[in-house]
Recover the amino acids of this structure.
């Protein structure tokens, strides 16, 4: 679960502002202080046309009298509330919508990362790179989600003869599709550019490993109950927001040179806030079958169902407190959902390890000279 959550967090944080914690009274150069990269080591990647201020004009006009720092604060606040409201709406629409959103994020992430490689690759006028990249994406998705369909939609597969054939020979078909792409890559090799082409081949496969694998695991997690999707996503969002707020109002001490606007105050404040938030959210969601039951397929209605007898982890239990706590609080026992205990570890992981996903994104942006921007998936 922690591995799934970490992978999910990495992609989630990649699309958020990598330098999220503003600090009072501290001016820094965010374009490479102490990164030690020489110009020779940095690929000359043209900036995207999206590297502009895409803030809604009405919002810019309403905040035009504010200092840049406070203007940025209110823009982040308004857009964050809008995105959180959209997230609630998606949850309300059910598991199918959540799956489609995960797939959309996967495709968009893949497109963004591949585009960076394509800008370098295209300058040499070498064939098929982008075509093969998308072909491999289709192959890997077919392999992963074909397995998922066979596992979770067994009744539907057994009912349709073509699906039975695809399920029976699924792995062979997947392997054959990959081999076809492999052969196309070999045929596309151009003399004097072999090394670059193999770089791009590896670039595509690493991107597939990071993006497609994690999205598949997220969807697998979702089928075990929407709570296993909602809680990890929510605590990452909470940590990012609270770290920014604590850093904005109380930040003084720099955390890491790679991301100069991050502060220890934001890091610590985000940690405690996220643990409390995760504990409360786990308590609220554990009470509803809609969130805790595995997502199943009903062959009679041809639809998804979320009805079950909740497992023990979502049943209230009584715990005896340690003697020290009993003497301090005068309580001997406490009633909790076991999942609330899980939430403490999940929140701690998101708060302590999660920011390193942001640091990774900061280094990635500096390596390829990518400016922060507003895109389809939110603030980057």
């Amino acid at each position: 679960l922690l591995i799934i959550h970490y992978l999910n967090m990495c992609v989630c944080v990649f699309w958020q502002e990598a330098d999220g914690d503003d600090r009072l009274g501290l001016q820094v150069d965010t374009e490479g202080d102490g990164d030690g990269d020489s110009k020779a080591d940095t690929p000359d990647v043209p900036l995207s046309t999206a590297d502009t201020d895409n803030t809604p004009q009405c919002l810019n006009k309403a905040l035009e009298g504010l200092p840049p720092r406070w203007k940025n604060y209110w823009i982040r606040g308004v857009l964050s509330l809008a995105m959180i409201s959209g997230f609630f709406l998606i949850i309300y629409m059910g598991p199918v919508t959540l799956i489609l959103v995960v797939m959309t994020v996967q495709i968009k992430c893949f497109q963004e990362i591949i585009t960076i490689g394509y800008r370098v690759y295209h300058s040499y006028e070498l064939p098929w790179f982008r075509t093969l990249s998308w072909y491999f994406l289709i192959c890997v998705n077919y392999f992963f989600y074909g397995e998922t369909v066979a596992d979770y939609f067994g009744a539907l597969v057994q009912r349709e003869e073509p699906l039975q054939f695809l399920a029976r020979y699924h792995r062979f078909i997947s392997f054959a599709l990959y081999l076809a792409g492999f052969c196309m890559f070999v045929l596309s090799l151009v003399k004097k550019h072999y090394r670059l082409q193999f770089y791009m081949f590896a670039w595509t496969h690493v991107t597939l490993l990071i993006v497609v694998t994690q999205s598949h695991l997220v969807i697998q997690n979702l089928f075990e109950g929407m709570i296993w999707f909602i809680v990890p996503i929510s605590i990452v969002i909470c940590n990012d927001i609270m770290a920014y707020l604590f850093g904005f109002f109380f930040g003084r001490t720099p955390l890491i040179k790679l991301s100069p606007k991050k502060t220890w105050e934001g890091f610590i404040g985000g940690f405690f806030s996220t643990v409390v938030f995760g504990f409360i959210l786990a308590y609220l969601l554990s009470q509803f079958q809609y969130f805790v039951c595995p997502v199943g397929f009903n062959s009679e209605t041809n639809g998804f169902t979320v009805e079950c007898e909740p497992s023990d982890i979502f049943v209230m239990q009584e715990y005896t407190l340690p003697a020290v706590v009993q003497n301090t609080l005068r309580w001997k026992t406490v009633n909790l959902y076991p999942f609330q205990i899980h939430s403490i570890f999940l929140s701690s992981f998101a708060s302590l390890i999660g920011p390193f996903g942001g640091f990774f994104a900061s280094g990635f942006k500096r390596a390829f000279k990518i400016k922060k921007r507003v895109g389809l998936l939110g603030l980057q």
Observations:
- The beta strands are 254-256, 259-263, 296-298, 303-305, 317-320, 333-336, 374-375, 378-379.
- The two ends are 26 Å apart (CA to CA).
- Residues 2-295+343-379 form one domain.
- The longest strand covers residues 259-263.
